[in-house]
Prior knowledge:
InterPro entries: PAP2/HPO. This is Phosphatidic acid phosphatase type 2/haloperoxidase domain-containing protein. The chain crosses the membrane at residues 12-34, 46-64, 93-111, 118-136, 142-165. Keywords: Membrane, Transmembrane, Transmembrane helix. By secondary structure, this protein is an all-alpha fold. The chain has one domain (23-61, 75-82, 90-170). 69% of the residues lie in helices and 0% in strands. The chain contains 9 helices and no strands. The protein has helices spanning 5-9, 17-21, 23-26, 29-33, 37-60, 78-85, 95-113, 118-137, 143-170. The model has no long low-confidence stretch (mean pLDDT 87).
Amino acid sequence: xxxxxxxxxxxxxxxxxxxxxxxxxxxxxxxxxxxxxxxxxxxxxxxxxxxxxxxxxxxxxxxxxxxxxxxxxxxxxxxxxxxxxxxxxxxxxxxxxxxxxxxxxxxxxxxxxxxxxxxxxxxxxxxxxxxxxxxxxxxxxxxxxxxxxxxxxxxxxxxxxxxxxxxxxxx
Length: 171
């Protein structure tokens, strides 16, 4: 994948791996605010299609991140584990970014529905932004992966909201 200025600006910050991993808690949060099976089904439907489309892209157009000059042995633990375990052909789009944005948009929609105060909505946006930034600070992705991850997550959310609107209109 090509390297752009944001890729050079983003330092390797090993401690951000914990924020990166927090995605797996974050994506569960919308399900705690969803009050109906139909809405929960739509959330899972969007997540399924996002993953399926991402994996299809990986198969048809395999991409990998550059070989960074970092000495990964100098970062024992989770960062080394990630580098050892990563599949080298699934960089673009970043599904971490797609799921972070998809979750943030769903959570914002749900928080507005329950009239949550601004700090909750800002906290949601900041958590998603932090996860997205860590895809660069852990060197798991490059900027173009982030861009396409945002496009995938945003597009799936838009289609997902159409499905929600359609289902509510037909009910």
